Amino acid sequence: MSVPDQHIYPHATGQAAKTVEQRQEPQDLVFYSGWFCPFVQRAWIALEERGIPYQYKEVNPYKKEKHFLDINPKGLVPAIEYKGKALYESLILIEFFEDAFPEYKPRLLPDDSFDRAYVRLWVDHVAKQIVPAFMRTVMAQEPEKQKENLEEYYKALRTLTDKIKGPYFLGEQFSFVDAALAPWVVRDYIIAENREKWKAYAEKIETRESVLKTISDKEHYAEIYARYLRNEAQSEAAKAMRAGRPF
Predict the structure, then answer these.
(1) pLDDT tens digit string along 69-122?
(2) Is residue 5 a contact partner of residue 237, using CB atoms and an 8 Å limit?
(3) Residue 3: CA count within 13 A, CB half-sphere
(4) Secondary structure of residue 58 in the 3-state scheme
(5) Active-site residues: which are they?
(6) Which one, 20, 83, 158, 167, has the greatest CB density within 10 A?
(7) Helix (H, G, I), strand (E, B), or coil: what is residue 2?
(8) Does residue 169 contact residue 202 with C-beta atoms inside 8 Å?
(9) Order of all β-strands in the sheet with 79-82
(10) Whole-model pTM?
């Protein structure tokens, strides 16, 4: 029997498709992407936000070609090739973009060392609290578990929301925290429309140009997340959630 996740829509659509079309020229930085993946999107947002030149290559991680596996033995997107060297993992890639391309503005990390550490602290909260709670909520099948996980998700959101200076996390500056969280902001319709104090921040993130430029048509996300809602998804993130391990 085939793996359901293999039958995803083959390419980006909507505004994301226009972005892909503009990013086909060869560059030193090759960005291996899956249009549907939120982990891809946050690294993609960082590239667009910074204006870093890159070449976009679409990958179906469920049908892995040899060259892609040579780049990333895990077979996961996002991944990059930069001057013949390979890297992967979305948050690590964003850090790499900051270090390797200091001339491209705006930076997503502040100049002040304390502020940089503070931003990393809250990126860690996104990675370890918000994203896993979102995934558990989407994948839960029993009503009691759904309710429990939804509360956990909202608690994690409220903890971060209390620290938002507005309009973005640090105030006027769009930062690493905003990029790390943005893909789940634009996907939170999957869980519920109730955003409480979250609403103003979510609306600001959803209308940010770099976020809009990396979003495909909602209809194609629906098919993918239906598998998570039925707890049938076979992505590495879904498998990790079932096993109770980090991803």
Answers:
(1) 988 888 889 999 999 999 999 999 999 999 999 999 999 999 999 999 999 999
(2) no
(3) 12
(4) strand
(5) 37
(6) 20
(7) coil
(8) no
(9) 55-58, 29-33, 79-82, 85-88
(10) 0.86
